[in-house]
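Q: I'm building a small set of examples for a reading group on sequence design. Run inverse folding on the following structure and report the sequence directly after it, with nothing in between.
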């Protein structure tokens, strides 16, 4: 029996590409990289290729075995230049772009900071914020989109910075952060930032202002002794400023602490608020599921505010959140740089190729998920989730560049959904609109502003 010959990159299934623009026009026409990859995999199979402009080769796979293979490689822990450019506003050398030993040491410091104590803090803060927001949501002073954004901004603001984001310096940081996020002219896809556009340089000036505001807060915290902050239930900035290495020296410099807290804040605000909105959108389209969650909440909480401990006594609500993250993962595409030639499914992929970890295409793969576009929370109830391959479900990425705050995010989403459904119900005015668009760093429900909120 002869071995099948190794095929080269150009033999990988993919769409024809323009010699200069590559597949960028098709990506734009599809509505973004996430939508194009989802469609490309549906048409061409589990392994596909594409080009971003004349020079950038890329591949994408929806095979859990391939993801597992690459995740074990030491040459798969670096992001490509195009994604580093889109995150440049976090600061030079930000923690999201570290690799190798430096990345492992930093993640080892950060992971305990986002454990149960921090999640309990998020629950306590979130309940207080919800009590402020709910009356305005119920009397329609704000809509659900505004409520979810304010909830995420305020909760993450206090948990990350230890500051009230309603006034003073905290409000300044929150406003500058959202402005920088929404005016970011660097989009995933093109291999370089639009440095020829005046708005790019205006945006860079706004980024420097944001950094100055956070640095000002750091100096204020140091004056109050935040560098000696050892309370494990404290905010992230205080924990970063007090972290020590094995020699007892400060682990993070002030600039590194700023970059770390901004990176976590960036990863939490839009992703969390969009996930809450997606939950509301799907439940508004299936009121029977919403009533089942409300019945579970009434039985377990009996009118009390949710806490960290009671959140994990709500298995059906949890399954709804996980199924929402499967169909509409907030970060639908992750990227890695292939640093050495590698063999993937019999094809030789050259060094320098961008590897797209298309989370949304993986989650929509019918070989892994029967009826992938049907909202079925029962997939994740009890032992049913165990039948799916490892890496088939990865809403927060995987490996050295996976989100270390995934558990924290699920806690915050759970707290928000429980608090909202205790008092409110969601519905659509007519036909549910469950289409997404990539906005401000996350996949958001395009028509969520149409959702109707009524009191129970």
């Amino acid at each position: 029996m002869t071995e099948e010959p190794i095929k080269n990159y150009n033999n990988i299934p993919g769409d024809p590409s323009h010699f200069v623009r590559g597949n960028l026009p098709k990506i734009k026409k599809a509505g973004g990289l996430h939508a194009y990859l989802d469609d490309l995999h549906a048409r061409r199979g589990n392994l596909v290729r594409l080009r971003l402009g004349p020079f950038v080769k890329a591949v994408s796979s929806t095979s859990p075995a391939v993801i597992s293979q690459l995740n074990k490689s030491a040459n798969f822990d670096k992001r490509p230049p195009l994604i580093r450019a889109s995150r440049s506003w976090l600061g030079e050398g930000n923690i999201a772009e570290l690799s190798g030993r430096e990345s492992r040491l930093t993640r080892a410091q950060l992971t305990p900071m986002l454990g149960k104590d921090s999640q309990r803090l998020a629950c306590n803060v979130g309940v207080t914020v919800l009590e402020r927001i709910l009356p305005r949501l119920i009397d329609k002073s704000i809509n659900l989109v505004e409520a979810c954004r304010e909830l995420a901004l305020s909760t993450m603001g206090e948990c990350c910075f230890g500051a009230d984001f309603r006034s003073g310096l905290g409000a300044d940081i929150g406003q500058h952060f959202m402005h920088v996020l929404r005016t970011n002219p660097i989009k995933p896809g093109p291999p370089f930032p639009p440095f020829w556009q005046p708005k790019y340089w205006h945006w860079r000036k706004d980024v420097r202002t944001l950094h100055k505001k956070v640095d000002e807060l750091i100096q204020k915290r140091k004056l109050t002794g935040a560098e000696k902050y050892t309370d494990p239930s404290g905010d992230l900035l205080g924990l970063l400023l007090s972290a020590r290495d094995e020699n007892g020296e400060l682990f993070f410099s002030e600039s590194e602490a700023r970059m770390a807290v901004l990176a976590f804040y960036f990863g939490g605000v839009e992703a969390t608020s969009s996930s809450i909105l997606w939950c509301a959108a799907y439940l508004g389209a299936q009121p029977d599921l919403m009533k089942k969650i409300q019945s579970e909440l009434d039985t377990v909480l009996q009118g009390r505010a949710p806490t960290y401990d009671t959140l994990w006594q709500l298995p059906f609500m949890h399954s709804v959140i996980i199924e929402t993250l499967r169909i509409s993962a907030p970060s639908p595409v992750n990227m890695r740089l292939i640093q050495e030639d590698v063999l993937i499914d019999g094809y030789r992929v050259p060094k320098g190729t961008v590897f797209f970890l298309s989370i949304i295409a993986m989650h929509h793969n019918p070989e892994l998920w029967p009826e992938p576009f049907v909202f079925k929370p029962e997939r994740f109830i009890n032992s049913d989730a165990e039948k799916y391959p490892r890496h088939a479900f990865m809403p927060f990425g995987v490996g050295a560049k996976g989100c270390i705050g995934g558990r924290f995010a699920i806690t915050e989403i759970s707290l928000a959904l429980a608090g909202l459904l205790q008092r409110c119900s969601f519905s659509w005015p007519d036909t549910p609109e469950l289409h997404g668009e990539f906005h401000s760093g996350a996949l958001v429900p395009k028509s969520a502003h149409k959702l109707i909120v009524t009191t129970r």
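The radius of gyration is 22 Å.
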